[in-house]
Design a protein that fits this description.
CATH architecture of the largest domain: Orthogonal Bundle
Radius of gyration: 19 Å
CATH class of the largest domain: Mainly Alpha
Structural class: mainly alpha
CATH superfamily of the largest domain: Hypothetical protein af1432
Helix content: 55-70%
Number of domains: 2
Order of helices and strands: HHHHHHHHHHHHHHHH
């Protein structure tokens, strides 16, 4: 696949991606958002949707249903005896189902070993979950009605890395190593090498998936929320969550990188240091709990 085809993903949107050359035989090789996730996202966002519709969507994926039942029966939800998808939805709630389905399906979507030698998909998933957790906490403080959608944005904020790992592994591997050697964030090394970064590619992929503009903007602008004139209030939460995830040790293949909260974001949030510390503690607990619950190692 060449630069021409990549631009086609964006429906003729003009994106200067420098020297990118993605070589695959068919566009079907692009990462695919599982159909059940698409259905659940649309149902939860539809005020006229009902529990039965959500139940049918979840039951269309038997493996996902089994994992959801496992979660619904866990001590986190009181250890209730849950045997059906409908009961699980009642226990977890419709908004909670959105975050759970996205978390489980996203993990499945990125499953398997990385193509590059430097990109660890488990570390990537842990960072994605950590960012989603922090984003949801921050959203509950600032925009409670958007908390679940902001969680989804946090989970998917670095999805562009999956594209790079799939379609240009050697170049991506080299940039990861350069970022580590120079002690700079990965997106900075990408900009230096290609004049674009994974957030640009992630935004294009999110547009192809047809997910909400709010989530798409958070993916595309999480490294520069000040440039997001339409959804700044939510994008800035994902940007802050990304930093907190790094500070909590979920560094997404960038060990040793010192992450600092940008002054403009810190000023916007206006939170005391002890609240940041508390969020970092929750991040560590949630990622550890998820690994045990889903038997991920």
């Amino acid at each position: 696949m060449t630069l021409r085809i990549l631009n086609d993903w964006a429906d003729n949107r003009t994106v200067d991606l420098g020297t990118l050359r993605i070589k695959v035989q068919r566009s079907e090789n692009l990462p695919t958002l599982p159909e059940v996730v698409t259905k659940v996202l649309k149902l939860v966002e539809n005020p006229d949707a009902n529990l039965r519709e959500l139940e049918r969507a979840v039951e269309s994926d038997s493996a996902l249903t089994a994992k959801i039942l496992k979660v619904a029966n866990s001590p986190f939800y009181g250890g209730a005896s849950v045997a059906t998808a409908s009961r699980a939805i009642s226990v977890i709630g419709m908004s909670g189902m959105r975050t759970l389905v996205v978390s489980l399906s996203y993990r499945q979507m990125i499953g398997g070993g990385a193509t590059t030698g430097a990109f660890d998909k488990l570390e990537y998933w842990k960072h994605s979950l950590a960012t989603a957790t922090a984003a949801k906490i921050l959203a509950k403080m600032r925009i409670p009605a958007k908390a679940e959608e902001v969680y989804v944005a946090g989970m998917m904020h670095d999805v562009g890395m999956i594209v790079l790992d799939s379609f240009m592994p050697m170049q991506f591997d080299q940039v990861i190593m350069r970022a580590r050697d120079n002690g700079v964030p990965l997106h900075v090394a990408e900009q230096e090498e290609w004049e674009w970064d994974h957030s640009t590619v992630g935004g294009i992929l999110a547009e192809r998936w047809g997910i909400s503009k709010m989530v798409r903007h958070a993916i595309e602008y999480h490294h520069c929320p000040e440039d997001d004139g339409d959804y700044y209030d939510t994008t800035v939460l994902v940007s802050a969550a990304d930093v907190l995830a790094h500070q909590a040790g979920m560094t997404n293949n960038q060990p040793g990188l010192e992450a600092e909260m940008p002054p403009a974001i810190a000023s916007h949030l206006a939170l005391p240091d002890d609240q940041y510390a508390a969020i970092r503690d929750v991040i560590v607990q949630e990622v550890s709990r998820a690994q045990m619950l889903f038997a991920i190692d």
